[in-house]
Amino acid sequence: MKIALLGHGTVGRGVDQIITQRVDGVEVARILELPDRLTEPRMTSNFEDILRDPEIELVVECMGGLEPAHTYIVDALAAGKSVVTSNKAVVAAHFDEFVSQAKATGATFLIEATCGGGVPWIASIEKARRIDQIESFSGIMNGTTNFIIDAMVKQGADFGDVLKQAQELGYAERDPSADIDGIDVRNKTYIAACVAFGCACVEDFPVTGLRTITKADIDLFAQKGLTVKLLGRGVQEDGRYAVSVEPVALSSDTLEAHVPTNFNLLSLVGTTVGELKFYGQGAGMLPTGNAIVQDVIDYSQGRRPVYDFSGELTYDEDLLKGDYVLRTTAEVEGSEPYAPGAVLVHDVNAAQARALFQKALNEDASSFMAALPKEA
Amino acid sequence: MKIALLGHGTVGRGVDQIITQRVDGVEVARILELPDRLTEPRMTSNFEDILRDPEIELVVECMGGLEPAHTYIVDALAAGKSVVTSNKAVVAAHFDEFVSQAKATGATFLIEATCGGGVPWIASIEKARRIDQIESFSGIMNGTTNFIIDAMVKQGADFGDVLKQAQELGYAERDPSADIDGIDVRNKTYIAACVAFGCACVEDFPVTGLRTITKADIDLFAQKGLTVKLLGRGVQEDGRYAVSVEPVALSSDTLEAHVPTNFNLLSLVGTTVGELKFYGQGAGMLPTGNAIVQDVIDYSQGRRPVYDFSGELTYDEDLLKGDYVLRTTAEVEGSEPYAPGAVLVHDVNAAQARALFQKALNEDASSFMAALPKEA
Questions:
Q1: Within an 8 Å CB–CB cutoff, is residue B129 touching chain A?
Q2: Is the CB of residue B293 less than 8 Å from the CB of residue B124?
Q3: How many structural domains does chain B have?
């Protein structure tokens, strides 16, 4: 089977290397690159060369960004070529359109590498759904922020210093907003919710990052036996669902609390299988390349997942309700003292908590908020 | 597709319930039961009724035990019927024979439910192997012993009391030997090694259980920042491999150290994907039933895994080498003091450690041994 790569950056090179060295029966025949980077005969800077090549059955998009990735994916699917992508931003923005386009031509759209890097997360949700309803999912989905929190805990360092470290190691972008403001986790949570609940997830759900977390916050929670992690979460119950992204202060006795460096840990709860967790490298050339190549092999072996967003679920933000801690100098409505400089708000939903936090941020831009686990 | 169940105990009833309530296109048409337990028309006590029924395409063996399970599986495969089983004892004893018999008739042999209950462990090893070499695997594979250790740690209770608790809760058998002597983990490790390394694993590898662990042992390791877990392990390197089952004192900062109650956590390291971990319920009616039904659905969707044990790997016990702690009043050759009543042996392989432990047990039947992690 001949395939084409769109993009030959870190992930594209990983895919090329894995397929060439380790996979029989698949050939990377064409590679789309920028005009000034055409270093070998397989490369072209003209997408039409790939689109019009009848021998190319499948296109792997690993360019990143919204455009031209969006257009190329739509065009490839419209031409009946199947698409594998690792681009969570473009899938989160156009999932529904891609799925409709794939249905229209009978092409297949595969997205394992958009969430959790090498962790078989999307395929595991799909597999669980063959039997179970997904009652809930949650996870550490962003290696950069996990690296930052883990280093803050272990080195007793402060946010800015560790962020600089992460940038030097290549774990964080020069502009780290997508990671530390929760946008990256938001996109992965959106995709997971669509797949897990079988519906087009609402676009607008509460997203809080951890840009303002301090060493003092880490210490405060540690004294209570808690460890902060940035989690994406979704729940489904009786035809309703809710999703959120926010820092959660978890019991230090959970597996999540011990996820080191830039690893991911993704969980689901299914009706009959109960709780399953999946752990691994959430990013990187070879793990993400591996996830893409697994999709390519699945396709070559005849797997044809068809996403169906026709589920008529109602978004109900009260499904995700709990207690929240805000560390702030601002006054927080309905709160009680939690610790010096921090207050506790009981039994609000993630959207209400987000609103309280926004209000606090307007008064004290350094404020930080974390959800408490149900049992704490 | 019509299938038959051999056995209608806990797991068989789980399979029956899940298929009837949640899976379209599969019908449990016949059930093999004891003559005095035939409570409904689908049931028969005569295996020939199933074997000779041309409409039965697949047989699910969930009787447990070696015979007649072994004979029924061989007969079904010889008749060209595919077999799904949750019976780790019979697979560990006859894996090679079952695989040869399946090859001979083109039948399929599926074993997800033999290891890790609802955790997709065997399928994950197979999937990783499509691209990677499995460099190593390890895991908490026995819920009973994990329940016992977890309760000892959390309740500060002693082994005997917690074992009684586990028996009352149905987590441990009346005769707990298979669990606490490591036999159950040995069988799962054997099966995982065959699948992961693509060779017929040696029958005879070091197996140590934790029948003799005491509250004092737990406390001793806790003081060193370590938590004991019973692990099955395998490594592969340069055409050689080794496997072992033994208590390992892991850093309390690992995910393994925080696996609660009767859950399992199974890990593999692949060449390109790196480290992956899989967590879930290792036993129980619905999780194990779920694993069996996943195999049935896989089969109905055309998945036909073919096990191949033709890999010419050499067993080399020196691949699993490390430091061991023995708590014993016996004198241990080449040891140095570790703590009051306990000694440390440096850099021995699992077989050498097992031999030292056997010798210590002969002098002091209450002795306990655990491997130390490489970095400790």
A1: no
A2: no
A3: 2
